[in-house]
Amino acid sequence: MQRSGAANSRRGEGPLSETPEGSTPPPEPEIFGEITRITRRTLHGEVVSHVRDMIIEGRLAPGARINEVQVGALLGVSRTPLREAIKTLASEGLVEVVPAKGAIVRRFSEQDLFQILEVLKSIEQLGGRLACARADQATIEAIADLHRRMLGFYQSRDRLEYFKLNQAIHSAIVQASGNAVLAETHTMLQSRIKRARFIGHGEPQKWAGAVAEHEEMVAALTARDADRLAEVIGRHLDASLTRVRDAI
C-alpha cells in the first residue's frame, strides 16, 4: 500500500510528498497572499523590450552589429538572456544573425518598406471593416482609450511612448476583427518596420498629420463606419510611406 501511494504521488494523483522528518514544512500559499513569481520569461521579455527600444530609437543603428558584451553590460544582464532576446528580435525581422559576424540590426530598403506597407494597408483595411461589424462596444471603447492615452504622450512630446501606443492601436483594430490569422500576419509585418515608422514622426508637421489621421480612424471606428475607416486607414498608411521615405 505504501508503495502504491508513492507512485500515485509521483504521478500527481495523490497528495504531495511528505516533508522529511526534522525539516521545516513549506509555507501555505495563503500566508503570502497574491505574489507574482519571478520567472525567466519575465527577464526575457524585459531584455527583448529594451533592445527593441534601442533599435527603434536608433541607438542600435541599421546595419550595426550588436556587441553582446557592451549591450549586456548596459542592461545589466549576462550574454545568455541577451542572446535569447536577439533570437526573438530576429524572428520579428528586426535583427539578422549573420555567420561569422553575429547579430546585425536589419537595414530595410525603400522597396522593402513599400512592399510591407502595401500589405499592411490591405490587412488593416480588412481588419477595420471586420472590427466595425464584429467588435463589441467594450473593445471599441478600449481602443478609444488607447487613443486618448496616446494623445497625452503626443502633448508631452514623448515620442517613444507615443509610438508604442500608436502601434498598439493599429494592432488592436486588427485584433478586433476576430480573425486570428489576420492579426498574426499583421503583428509579424508591423514588427519589422517599427524603426522606420518611428523616424517617420520626427518632424513636427508630419507627427501632427499622423495624429490627425488617428483622430479620424478612431472616430470612424466608434461610429462603426466601415467604409470611412478603410479610407482613412488607406490614406494614413500611404502617408506613412511618404513620411518614412523622406526620413530615410
UniProtKB/TrEMBL annotation:
Any stretches that span the bilayer, and where are they?
Answer: none
One Pfam entry for this protein is GntR
Q: What is this protein identified as?
A: GntR family transcriptional regulator
Q: Which residues form the HTH gntR-type domain?
A: 41-108
Keywords noted in UniProt: DNA-binding, Transcription, Transcription regulation
Gene3D superfamilies, from UniProt? GntR ligand-binding domain-like, Winged helix-like DNA-binding domain superfamily/Winged helix DNA-binding domain
InterPro entries registered for this protein in UniProt? GntR_C, TF_FadR/GntR_C, Tscrpt_reg_HTH_GntR, WH-like_DNA-bd_sf, WH_DNA-bd_sf
Q: Which GO terms describe its molecular function?
A: DNA binding; DNA-binding transcription factor activity
Annotated region Disordered: the residues are 1-30
